[in-house]
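Dear colleague,

Following up on Tuesday's group meeting, I ran the structure prediction for the two-component complex that the binding team flagged. I've pasted the input sequences exactly as they went in, so you can double-check that nothing got truncated or mislabelled along the way. The structure tokens for the whole assembly follow below. Feel free to forward this to whoever is handling the docking comparison.

Inputs:
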Amino acid sequence: DAGVTQTPRHEVAEKGQTIILKCEPVSGHNDLFWYRQTKIQGLELLSYFRSKSLMEDGGAFKDRFKAEMLNSSFSTLKIQPTEPKDSAVYLCASSLNWGGPETLYFGSGTRLTVL
Amino acid sequence: GQQVQQSPASLVLQEGENAELQCNFSTSLNSMQWFYQRPGGSLVSLFYNPSGTKHSGRLTSTTVIKERRSSLHISSSQTTDSGTYLCALGYGSSGNKLIFGIGTLLSVKP
């Protein structure tokens, strides 16, 4: 089975631009997560979907970050407008939610640089 | 304050030495996972271990719930063990939402 696939691997944006990051979860997984990783803050949860329904939208990240899950096999994270402080690695992860805790599988991430 | 604290922040070993990585959490947990991340790479799950001790090759994870801590022991370290080790505390009704520690950066020298 394919793992979690994220595209693009790298993205460079000018301040104020709109960027869209993409994620394909492991086939059959019900839970999908978007995280942001920086050296200072570590991993921060941006969004959490269960069976395509948005369960958590990351509080402080709500205003310029919007995650969507168009179908069970595809999710996007839009950042609009981008700011230099958004430079980070954005990670998508999925797990099979059968009602209890499950191992999380991560994609390779998208490294975003905002100039 | 931080709900998940890892120590040490970084560790340098000679190949063959053992390592003990610690994870302390300030809240009750539904689940605990350990992950490994190679520089520039993705996170790979090492252990899902909400309680007790689990073994996988040269790795051993021990979680003691009442003491709110989990540890990862690496025996006979190898240069390929170099990277960042992160622990994550699960919360929410199913324990699938994770709060991560900042990680321990391990460097194993030949």
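The longest strand of chain B covers residues 83-91.

Cheers,
M.
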